[in-house]
Design brief:
Two copies of one chain form a homodimer. Chain A has 342 residues and is α/β, with parallel strands linked by helices. The first copy, chain A, folds into three domains: 44 residues, 434 Repressor (Amino-terminal Domain), CATH 1.10.260.40; 128 residues, Rossmann fold (3-Layer(aba) Sandwich), CATH 3.40.50; 130 residues, Rossmann fold, CATH 3.40.50. Chain A contains 13 helices and twelve strands. Chain A has a six-stranded parallel sheet with strand order 2-1-3-4-5-11, with helices on both faces. A four-stranded parallel sheet of chain A has the order 7-6-8-9, with helices on both faces. Chain A has a two-stranded antiparallel ribbon with strand order 10-12. In chain A, α9 links the parallel β6 and β7. In chain A, α8 packs parallel to α9. In chain A, 51% of the residues are buried. The N terminus of chain A is likely disordered. Chains A and B meet through α4, α5, β2 and α6 of A and α4, α5, β2 and α6 of B. The first copy, chain A, binds a DNA duplex (30 and 30 nucleotides) through α2 and α4.
Chain lengths: 342, 342
Amino acid sequence: MTSTGTRNGSPTLDEVAQLAGVSRATVSRVVNDSPRVSPEARLAVQAAVETLRYVPNRMARSLVTRRTDTIALVLSESNTQVFSDPFFASIVRGLSARLADTELNLVLLAARGAREQEKIGRYARQGHVDGVILMSLHSDDLLPDILAGTHLPLVLSGRPLDGRSIAYVDADNTGGAVAATELLLSLGRRRVATVTGPQDMVAGLDRYAGYRAAVERSGGRVDPDLIAAGDFTEAGGMRAMTELLSRAPDLDAVFVASDPMAVGAVQALRAAGRRVPDDVAVVGFDDAAVAATSDPPLTTVAQPLGEMTALMVELLLDQIESGERSVEARVCDTSLVRRASA
Amino acid sequence: MTSTGTRNGSPTLDEVAQLAGVSRATVSRVVNDSPRVSPEARLAVQAAVETLRYVPNRMARSLVTRRTDTIALVLSESNTQVFSDPFFASIVRGLSARLADTELNLVLLAARGAREQEKIGRYARQGHVDGVILMSLHSDDLLPDILAGTHLPLVLSGRPLDGRSIAYVDADNTGGAVAATELLLSLGRRRVATVTGPQDMVAGLDRYAGYRAAVERSGGRVDPDLIAAGDFTEAGGMRAMTELLSRAPDLDAVFVASDPMAVGAVQALRAAGRRVPDDVAVVGFDDAAVAATSDPPLTTVAQPLGEMTALMVELLLDQIESGERSVEARVCDTSLVRRASA
DNA sequence: GGACGTCGTGAGAACGCTCTCACGACCGGA
DNA sequence: TCCGGTCGTGAGAGCGTTCTCACGACGTCC
C-alpha cells in the first residue's frame, strides 16, 4: 500500500491537508482558528477534518507550545477520607465549573504516602500539567517541597504550614472560629468545649487557635478537659464528643471544627441524653450541605467556597500566563450562619 | 551567548549528553535502562543527570512511543456525590495501590453534564491517556458512546446499561441482593421492603432485580408499597425509609441497596421508634467501613473490591499491551456479612 | 504605472525524544 | 591469519505539531 489515508493510528495534520488540498500550515491555522485563512480554505479544511475525524495530537502540540492546557488538583492525603469530606467535593465542583468554559482540563491526583507523592511530583515535573493546586496538606507532606523545587505554577488551598512562601488561598479559619466561640459565649454558655480538627493540618490548627483566642479574650481560661481532637470525619466527631462528655459532663456548648464532625457530635450528645441546643449548644464549621439538613439544622461558619475556588484558579492562571511563580496570598472572610443548633 | 547549559527551560537529553561526553542515544539508553551500555558511560550519564536535575520530557517521549503511561479513572457523574460514596473511595484506593509499583500514573477525571463529558472525551482522544476506566455510569451518559468510537482501551466498572459490548468488571449485584433478601425471608420476616438505588444505574437496577427475584421465588408477591427509591446517599436512605414507614407501617425487614443508605434508614427507623433488628431487620450492600462501625453494626453484602480493581487494571493493561479492544466481562461473587442488624 | 502594504499561503525548521542502522573494536574458532 | 559474532556507540531519521519566513497576488496611493 502506498501512503493511504487509512492507517492504523489517528489521522494527522498532513493527511487532512492532503484531502483538503492545502498545506499543513493552513490546516493548523484553521484548527487553531487563526483569522488569516480564506473562507474557501477554511471550509475545505473543516470538511476534511470532519470526514477524517481528525483530532490534534496533544503530545506533538505540547512539545512545541510547551503548554498542556491541563491543571492538576492534587490531594495530598494519606487516607482516602478526603473524598468523603464535603469540603473537598465543593472545591472540585467549584474548580471544574470555573474551568468549564475555558480550554483547560482538570485532573485529580491522589497521593497516599511518600512513594506516591514522589510519583505525582514526577508526573507534574515531566510536563503533564501547566500548574497545580495542592489541597488538604498535612505537615509531613513532601509535595510542597518537591514542587517548590520546580518552576511549575503552584497554588495551595490553605496557608502553608511551615511558613514557606507559596501562593495560597485560604479562609479566615481563625476568625471564623473566634466568631463561633464568641457566639456560644454570648449565649451565656459557661463551659464551651471544642472538637478540633487534625493538628497537623492548617485548618485544624487555626480553628483551634481561634477557639482559644476567643475563650481567653472573654476572660475565661482554656480548660484541657474541654478539648478533644477529631479528624474531620463524622465518626471522629462522635468519638471526640463522647470523650468530652466523660471528661467534662458539665459542658454546655461545643465548637466543632467541621460539619461532618458536628453531625457526629450531635449524635453522641443525643446518645448521652443531652438536648441540642437546650442542654448543649453546637456550632460547626464549613456550612456543608449536611449542616442545613441535619437535625437540628446546624449553626455553622460558612466559607465563601465559590470565591475561594475562583481565586485559586485566578492565581494559578496568572502564574501560567506570566511564567512566573507568585507568592500572593488571599484570605477570605467567613460568616456565621445561624440555624437551630446554637 | 552560545548554546550554554543554563537555558530558561529544563535541560534536554542533548545537554546531558554533552556534559557526560556521550551521544544523545547513549543517554536515552541509560535513562530507559537498556542493558547495552558500558558501566563507565552509565556512570557518567547518571552523574550528568544528577547535576542537571534532568527530567525527561514526557511529551517528546510520548510523541514517539505513542504511550503516555497514564490511565484515567473517569467518574461520569452529574453531581459530586460520588465522592462521598465510600465505594468510590475504595476503588480509587484499590487502583492506585495496584498501580503503585508500576510505571503507570492514575488521573481522576470528573464529569458533570454533557459539556464536561465531551471535554473529557476530547481529553482522552487527544492522547493524554493510554486507557480509561469508566465508573458510576448512568443511563444517559455520553462517555461510553464517545469513547467507544475511539480505539482507546476501555474498561467499565459495572455492566454497561445498554448491552453494548465493552469490557467490564462487576460484582454479582443481583446475586448479592437475592442472598440478602433471602436471609431476611429466612429469618421469618413476612413484610420485606427495599430501598433501591437510582434506577438509571446498573447497581441500582440489579440490586432491585435481585430483591424482586428473591421475593417472587419465595412465593410472595412484590408489593409496590414496600419499595422506595434512594440515591445511594445517607440522606436519601433516610428519606426513602421514612416514606416506606408511612406507606407500610407493618414492614418488618428492609433490604437497602447501599450501606450509606442503610445508615440513613436505621436513623429513620429509630426516629420512628422501631428497634433494629428486633422490629425491623436491615441488610445493606457494599460492606463499606461504616457498616462495621454503625450502631447496630450492619449486616451487608460484601463485594471483593480488591479483586475487582485488580481485574479492571488487568483487563485494561491487556488491551493496552495488545493494542486491541477486548469485550471481556468479569463478574465477581459477593458474600453476605452477618452482623447485628439482621 | 510604479512603489508599497496587506493578505493568504506554503516550505521548512524547530520541539525533545526514541530507535534503527551502521560502524569500529574486540573476541573466539578455524 | 582470517572470518564471523557480539558489544558499545553515534549518526540520523522520524514522531505530529507550531511558527517564522518568504513569496506571489492583490489592492491603494501618489
